[in-house]
Automatic annotation (TrEMBL):
UniProt-listed InterPro entries: G_ENGA, GTP-bd, GTPase_Der, KH_dom-like, KH_dom-like_a/b, P-loop_NTPase, Small_GTP-bd
Signal as UniProt keyword: no
Family: Belongs to the TRAFAC class TrmE-Era-EngA-EngB-Septin-like GTPase superfamily. EngA (Der) GTPase family.
Species lineage: Bacteria, Pseudomonadati, Pseudomonadota, Alphaproteobacteria, Sphingomonadales
Protein name as it appears in the record: GTPase Der
Organism: Sphingomonas piscis
Segments forming a coiled coil: none
Amino acid sequence: MPLPTVAIVGRPNVGKSTLFNRLVGKKLALVDDRPGVTRDRREGDASLLGLEFRIVDTAGFEDEDPASLPGRMRRQTEAAVREADVALFLIDAREGLTPLDEEIARWLRVEDTPVIVAANKAEGKAGESGRMEAFALGLGEPLAISAEHGEGVVDLFEALRPFVEREESDEEEEEDRPDGPLKLAIVGRPNAGKSTLVNRLLGEERMITGPEAGITRDSISLDWEWQGRPVRLVDTAGLRKRAKIEDKLEKLSVADTLRTIDFAEVVVLLLDATRGLEVQDLKIADAVIEQGRVLVIALNKWDVAEHASSLFNGVKAALEEGLSQLKGVPVLTVSAKTGKGTDTILQVAFELREQWSRRVSTGELNRWFERAIDANPPPAPGGRRIKLRYITQVKTRPPSFVIFGNRVDEIPESYRRYLLNALRRDLELGPVPLRLTLRGSRNPFQPDQR
């Protein structure tokens, strides 16, 4: 059973994202002093004194031309309220009511969604006059809260409880099961078409898109189904070269995207086919592999790419050279605009996650190990033989193995690479990152991450 949903709404800079972060217990939403930081809807699982619900952070509500970026942000906020079980309308108690607050209240009064008014930044008595002004909105008694300091949570609990309280469920948590929701992150440089791809996959204008580069700032998580299989889809902010990142907010966005990679299972690196592969793309791909996540390369805008065949072969060759630690990374051609190739992304992602989650039995693993050692024995540096005794798999996601032997610190990198490539090929583990550790008496922990 899905969790009840609470949508936080209000004009820019009243503390919506700060309250969102407090309720989810993590700094998921970006927070900054300037208005308009949040642009897309952001969702998270919230807990308040035992109440469990889904919380949605929305963009600041502004009165702008519908075709403008603020206008498109406003449509996302309106959609979030209509889909929610209750709307939490935040005002700034220290500033008091503004004409925009009154306009938002007029809109909320004609919507069917129940509304709770909360006067934020009301710590101490500084915001009492602003809270009293909020009675004039005609939406019931305003609560006094401080999202930053955690004040007023009991009153907020009592106000939300009639709308979000439900009986306990015995459903098994599926979050980290290999057959649970596929955690799929879409990453890439700005304007590669990430949000357009997410909208195409979902079949709705869920993410704000447009010609402006860098519209998405937060990593936006969306629960969805593909052919009856659950997916947790994450759209992320564009990643530029570090030298070009001067804005504090963009630095926060980049850090947020890198955290998203860490929590994903499969990461789709979206490239703009009209620009080809650049050094920054290889750096992003390398970061995904180093985190042990499954990597899929998708060439977007393929419907308008010129010299398609040579472009595709050039990208493949550059990947083979630039990602020498992991051969055979899938390269797919897609068009987020037309939808061509988008189903293939999901199909490949599910297949690779299965390989990434695979556990090989100790018997099968050591039979393979004996064959691999017989086919290509370890070298004998200085004429002294290196003895590798046996191998075991210690974990999955990514598959991680330990080889036990003596003098393992003298194993050259080329032989490590041979073992990794043979593992991947002979046991059909596919183009997924593997972890291999050589453990001996003199140097017990010498990891090799590929």
